[in-house]
Design a protein that fits this description.
The protein is α/β, with parallel strands linked by helices. It has 12 helices and 22 strands. The model has no long low-confidence stretch (mean pLDDT 93).
C-alpha cells in the first residue's frame, strides 16, 4: 500500500488531541507488572504498547514483540528477574537485526540465564529462571533503553541495583524519565556523576498516574507549522514541565519559525512567527535523537542548511535512520552528507512544483520516516510507501492531519 498526501484545503487553526506517550506508558506497564498497586490512566494505544501489554499478560512460552524494540529490551530485563519458566522472546526479522548484546551481557553478570537462539548479540533470546543481584557497569553510549530496562527492575531486586555508566551518556532525558517514575511509586533513586543507585522496594505506594501526551508526536505539527504561511495548531494533553526530552522542540522550533504559547489546561498553541530563518540550523541531538528525521525534513522544506550531531544511536533504531534520510532526501533533490553520527544538509532553492509526482518515499519499516516526510504535503503532493507503519507509535496520525486540511489517499502501487 502507498499513501498520497496533499493539502486539499486551507485550515488556519485546528485542535489536536495527541496520543499518549508510549515511552511513559511502556515504563509504567513494567512497573505495574512488578507492583500491582500502580494504576495507569490514558495509556497509549499504539502497536508498541499493545504488544507489551499482551506479552506481560501472556502465559505462553514464546513471546513475539514484532517490531517493538522498547518491548524487547524492557521484557528482557523484566523476564530475567521474574520468570518462573523458560521463555523464548522473539521479534520480527527487522527487530532481530537490532542489537541487544550489551543488555544481555550486563544481565548475565547479574546472574541472569539468557542464551541466544540464533545470532550472538541479537534476538531471539531464551530466558530461564534466575536470581539476580545488581552492582554492574554498562556502556551508556549505545542505548539509554538498556539502562532504563535495568533501572525498572532495580527496586524489585532484593538488594536493589547499582549501575556505573561508562562512556558518553546518550538520550539522558529517557533515563531521567525512568528514575522520576521510580520516585513516583516510592523508590528513592540517586544519580550522581556516572553512578545510579536504586534501593530495593518491597511494596509500592498506591498511586494513579495519567500518561501525558507524546512530545515526539508533537514534532510533526511543529514541522507542519514551520513549513506553513500562517498555521495555528492547538495541541492538547502536553505538560510544559514534561519528563519527555523531546519537549526541547519548543526552543528548537522557535528558531525555525514556530512560537509556542502554553495554556493552563495542558494545551499548547503553535503559531507561525516571522523570525528570520538562520542560514544554517545547528543542533546536538545526543539527548533527543528521535527528532532528527523531523528536523532534517523541516529544514529541507524550508530550504535551510542543517547540521545535526550526536546521532550515533540512529544506526540501531528501526532502520539506519541516517542512511534512510540520505536516500529519501536525495530522491527529492536534497544534497546531504552523513557520517556515523552527523548529518549535513545543504541549503537549496528548489522549485517544489518540479518534483516528480511519481517519487515514492520509502519508510524502511520505520514509523518516524513516514511521519517526518508526510509534513511535506504542506508544500507538494508526497507519496509514502507502507504508510500504516505509523501505528507503531501514532495510530491516529492521518486522521489528525486531515483536521489540518491534509488529505490522504490510500491505494495500491501501480
Amino acid at each position: 500500500m502507498i499513501a498520497k498526501l496533499s493539502k486539499y484545503k486551507e485550515v488556519s487553526t485546528a485542535s489536536i488531541f495527541l496520543s499518549a506517550s508510549k515511552s511513559l506508558s511502556n515504563r509504567l506497564l513494567i512497573l505495574q507488572a512488578l507492583y500491582p498497586d500502580i494504576e495507569i490512566e490514558n495509556i497509549a494505544s499504539c502497536d508498541d504498547t499493545l504488544v507489551l501489554q499482551k506479552a506481560l499478560a501472556s502465559q505462553e512460552d514464546t513471546l513475539d514483540v514484532h517490531h517493538a524494540g522498547t518491548a524487547m529490551r524492557f521484557l528482557t530485563a523484566y523476564l530475567a528477574a521474574t520468570t518462573r519458566r523458560e521463555i523464548t522472546l522473539k521479534g520480527s526479522p527487522a527487530l532481530q537485526r537490532r542489537p541487544i548484546g550489551p543488555l544481555v551481557a550486563t544481565l548475565t553478570q547479574m546472574g541472569a540465564l539468557i542464551t541466544y537462539a540464533d545470532k550472538i548479540g541479537y534476538p531471539p533470546l531464551k530466558i530461564k529462571p534466575a536470581t539476580l543481584t545488581g552492582k554492574v557497569r554498562i556502556d551508556a553510549s549505545e542505548s539509554s533503553q538498556y539502562i532504563s530496562a535495568l533501572a525498572l527492575i532495580g527496586p524489585y531486586l532484593s538488594n536493589g541495583l547499582t549501575l556505573s555508566l561508562e562512556g558518553t551518556i546518550t538520550s539522558k532525558p529517557y533515563i531521567d524519565m525512568t528514575l522520576s517514575l521510580l520516585t513516583s511509586i516510592g523508590v528513592e533513586p540517586t544519580f550522581k556523576g556516572s553512578d545510579i543507585r536504586i534501593p530495593p522496594l518491597k511494596k509500592s505506594k498506591k498511586c494513579k498516574t495519567t500518561v501525558e501526551a507524546d512530545w515526539s508526536s508533537a514534532s510533526y505539527f511543529y514541522s507542519l507549522v514551520s513549513l506553513s504561511k500562517n498555521r495555528s495548531v492547538h495541541l492538547c494533553g502536553l505538560k510544559s514541565t514534561s519528563l519527555q526530552g523531546d519537549a526541547a522542540l519548543v526552543s528548537m522550533y522557535e528558531t525555525l519559525g514556530v512560537s509556542t504559547t502554553i495554556l493552563a489546561n495542558q494545551t499548547i498553541v503553535l503559531t507561525k512567527n516571522n523570525t528570520p530563518l538562520p542560514p544554517e540550523f545547528k543542533a546536538d541531538l545526543m539527548a533527543t535523537p528521535d527528532l532528527a528525521q523531523t528536523i532534517a525534513v523541516t529544514c529541507f522544506g524550508l530550504g535551510v542548511a542543517c547540521h545535526l550531531t550526536g546521532l550515533h544511536t540512529l544506526k540501531i533504531k528501526e532502520t539506519d535512520r541516517l542512511k534512510a534520510l540520505a536516500n529519501e532526501l536525495t530522491k527529492l533533490g536534497g544534497e546531504i552528507e552523513i557520517t556515523d553520527d552527523t548529518l549535513l544538509l545543504e541549503a537549496h532553492k528548489l522549485s517544489f512544483e518540479n518534483i516528480a509526482q511519481d517519487i515514492e518515499i520509502a519508510t524502511y519499516q520505520d514509523h518516524r520516516m513516514a511521519m517526518a516526510f508526510a509534513v511535506l504535503a504542506e508544500l507538494f503532493c508526497i507519496t509514502i510507501q507502507d504508510p500504516m507503519v505509523v501505528t507503531k507509535s501514532y495510530p491516529n496520525f492521518y486522521d489528525d492531519f486531515k483536521k489540518l486540511g491534509i488529505h490522504t489517499n490510500f491505494c495500491e502501487p501501480h
